[in-house]
C-alpha cells in the first residue's frame, strides 16, 4: 500500500536529534554495521518485506546483494581479492 501523505512517503527516523535512516516504500537506507560490500559501496538498504540488507550503488563494476558479482560484460579477475577495486575486468 502506498502512503497517502508526504510524511508517509518519506519518513525520517530521528534518534537523539540526528537523522539515521530514510524509509521509502518499505526500504530503509542507512549505514548498517552488518552490511558487507567488500569496499565497493558505503551505503546499504534494508528491504523490509524481504528481510534483507543489500548494498546500494556498487562500484568498480560490481553488483549483487554484497557487491560480490561482476556487472554484465565484466569478468572476475581471479588474481584479485573480492575487496580489490580491480576484481571485475572488462
Low-confidence stretches: 1-21
Mean pLDDT: 74
Task: Write out the strand line-up for the largest beta sheet, numbering strands in chain order.
Answer: 1-2-3-4-5
Count of helical regions: 1
CATH architecture: Beta Complex
Span between termini: 41 Å
Instruction: Supply the CATH superfamily name.
Output: Tie2 ligand-binding domain superfamily
- How many DSSP-defined strands? 9
**Which percent band covers the strand fraction?**
35-45%
Shape: elongated
Derived structural class:
mainly beta
Reported by name, the CATH topology is: Tie2 ligand-binding domain fold
User: Over the alpha carbons, how many angstroms does the gyration radius reach?
Assistant: 16 Å
Number of domains: 1
**Major sheet size, sense and barrel closure:** 5 strands, antiparallel
Classified by CATH, the class is Mainly Beta
SSE arrangement, N to C: HEEEEEEEEE
Q: Tell me roughly what share of residues is in helical segments.
A: under 10%
Amino acid at each position: 500500500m502506498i502512503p497517502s501523505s508526504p510524511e508517509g512517503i518519506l519518513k525520517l527516523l530521528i534518534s537523539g536529534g540526528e537523522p539515521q535512516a530514510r524509509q521509502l516504500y518499505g526500504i530503509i537506507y542507512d549505514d548498517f554495521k552488518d552490511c558487507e560490500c567488500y569496499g565497493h559501496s558505503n551505503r546499504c538498504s534494508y528491504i523490509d518485506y524481504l528481510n534483507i540488507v543489500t548494498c546500494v550503488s556498487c562500484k568498480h563494476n560490481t553488483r549483487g546483494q554484497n557487491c560480490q558479482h561482476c556487472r554484465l560484460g565484466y569478468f572476475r579477475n581471479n588474481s584479485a581479492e573480492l575487496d580489490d577495486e580491480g576484481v571485475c575486468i572488462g
